[in-house]
Amino acid sequence: MNRSLHAAWDTSSSPFASAIGTNYVPSPAELDQLKNLLVEPQHELKRIQSEISRLQSLLDALLSEKNEVETCIEAHRTLMSPIRQIPSETLGEIFMHCLPSDTHPFVVRDLEQAPLLITTICRHWRCVSIDTPMLW
Question: Please, which domain of life does this record's source organism belong to (predicted)?
């Protein structure tokens, strides 16, 4: 924006600058003068509010589009995850190393521990863990 436009709204250059922020009571003639003085700033305020609203709508639309693009990217990046490239046999071996290290000869029946925990991660891990007899 032009610097001179901003100066027009500077209250220190107002004919009422000395009264602003005080308890001064304007006369009826001064009230008319104040009303006339505020016509242009009120129009400018409406214009600015309208422009802000237009830009906010544009920004909201762009943010929505950005979120859609990010979601698309993330969905496809997950398909490229290196863990997806590990052969099922190797994954089964890794799962066996996740078993509790205590000397229990029986599988722990707790969803917060392997091997049951592993079955809750994703469909592929569930299939691999179920197909790995040494886990059970």
Answer: Eukaryota
